[in-house]
Amino acid sequence: MGQLYSNLDTYTPDNLIAGNDIPLLVKAVTLEAGQGVVKRGTVLGKITKAIGNPTADAGNTGDGTVTNVSLGSTAKLGTYTLECITAVVDGGTFKVIDPDGIRLDDAVVGTAYTGPINFTINDGATDFAVGDKFTIEVSAGSGKYKVVNSTNVDGSQVAVCILAEEVDTTGGDVTTEAYTSGHFNRQALIFGGDDTAANHETRLRELGIYLSDNISY
């Protein structure tokens, strides 16, 4: 349903709609559960990335683990590979290869790693050996929508549309409609975190969503 678009030929003007010079287009969207009440005029982003659990290679010598795995802001879709290149007692160094085969900064056992993905490699009872590997998969996200927030890292930091009606996501996902084109009152828009229209206006304009301050709110 998320790709069904319709054109609103008529609408009731309110403080959100700033003019009828740009066609109002809407599409169906599914808001992710757990966001509470999300108000009309909230700018939404789409969840396009998700990170999986680390997988240890079956031939590993060491029995250490990888924990605290999370997405970074520049994570790519695909498989990240961590391979031991230096083995030492109770430690070691792993090279980190991204899905395009590009080598990133090395990871050190016992030290939190921060980059396109974040994780910590932990020493185990049996030390790692050169060639031991872990893989971490970054896959396509749920495709559901969240309140846009530039500090998010799952794709929802990018503005996509504007919620057309208030919904309550407390009890579960909610499918509703969102504007994908039109002319809107900048002062009536709602964002997540400390974001303002300035953080997202260029992106919204690229989508055909134009803002102005012609109505107080």
Output the radius of gyration: 22 Å
The tally of strands reads: 18
Order of helices and strands: EEEEEEEEEEEEEEEEEHE
Task: Note the overall shape.
Answer: elongated
Instruction: Give the helix proportion (percent range).
Output: under 10%
The count of domains is: 2
Number of helices: 1
Sheet/helix structural class: mainly beta
Output the CATH homologous superfamily of the largest domain: Head decoration protein D
Largest sheet: 8 strands, mixed
CATH architecture of the largest domain: Beta Barrel
* Percentage of β-strand residues: 35-45%
Poorly predicted runs: 1-5
Topology:
Blueprint (H helix, E strand, L loop, with lengths): L4 E4 L8 E3 L4 E8 L5 E2 L4 E4 L2 E3 L3 E2 L8 E7 L6 E11 L2 E7 L9 E2 L8 E6 L10 E8 L4 E3 L11 E5 L3 E2 L5 E12 L11 H11 L1 E4 L5
Parallel strand pairs: 17-18
Antiparallel strand pairs: 1-3, 2-17, 3-17, 4-16, 5-14, 5-15, 6-13, 7-13, 8-12, 9-10, 9-13, 10-11, 15-17
Summarize the structure.
The chain has 217 residues and is mainly beta.
Write structural notes for this entry.
The chain has 217 residues and is mainly beta. It folds into two domains: 5-48 and 141-212, Head decoration protein D (Virus Head Decoration Protein, Chain: A, Beta Barrel), CATH 2.40.300.10; 50-139, Immunoglobulin-like (Sandwich). 5% of the residues lie in helices and 43% in strands. It has one helix at 197-207; strands at residues 5-8, 17-19, 24-31, 37-38, 43-46, 49-51, 55-56, 65-71, 78-88, 91-97, 107-108, 117-122, 133-140, 145-147, 159-163, 167-168, 174-185, 209-212. Strands 1, 2, 3, 5, 14, 15, 17 and 18 form an eight-stranded mixed beta sheet that branches. Strands 6, 7, 9, 10, 11 and 13 form a six-stranded antiparallel beta sheet that branches. A two-stranded antiparallel sheet has the order 4-16. The radius of gyration is 22 Å and the shape is elongated. 31% of the residues are buried.
